[in-house]
Amino acid sequence: MRFQIFLLSLTQIWIISLVAQVSSNSPYTSYGIGETNNGVSTIGNSMGGANIANMDSSNVNIVNPASYALLSAGKPILNVSGISHISRFETLTDTLETSLFGLNNVVLSFPIRDNWGFTIGLNPFSKVGYKIQERKFFDDKNVRTSYIGTGAINKVFAGLAYRPLNNKNNQ
Fold first, then answer.
1. pLDDT confidence of 18, banded at 50, 70, 90?
2. Which of 18, 44, 158, 161 has a CA positioned 20 to 30 A from the CA of residue 104?
3. What are the strands, taking DSSP E only, across 54-111?
4. Which residues of 106-135 are buried (b: 16+ CB within 10 A; e: fewer)?
5. Residue 110 contacts by C-beta under 8 Å, 6 or more apart in sequence?
6. How many angstroms separate the Cα of 100 from the Cα of each of 15, 129, 136?
């Protein structure tokens, strides 16, 4: 029965991630791999991304895999966080304002035994989304060139952690 619940949860994670993916609207994503995502949870972003030392039994800290071993017994955690971007692009003649909301990460963590924790998750690593149009005149003809790109690179990860010392002050 537990295995069936695990498979159902994992399937729901994949469905959420497929539906909630969003690309970028930045012309700068046409260079390299695009706009990268730090993958830090909402709690980590609220601390300015400095959550490596955050050890909490009720929160999944994917930046610090050692924290997986501190999960409370019998309490699995599903962490789904979003991220939003509001951008403004200006040229001498045009202004473009965009706003996007997308999936930041989906993480499922659960304690396996005493002092052991397991985590599996999905993070968008980078995203690309641009539509650039250029108009030029050649021999009295108006020529328009369009550059369009969309896509993303996603990172699937799993982690296993063990806590060798059972210190009750860390829970």
1. very low
2. 161
3. 77-90, 95-111
4. bbbbbbeeeeebbbbbbbbebbbbbeeeee
5. 71, 75, 76, 77, 117, 118
6. 20, 11, 31
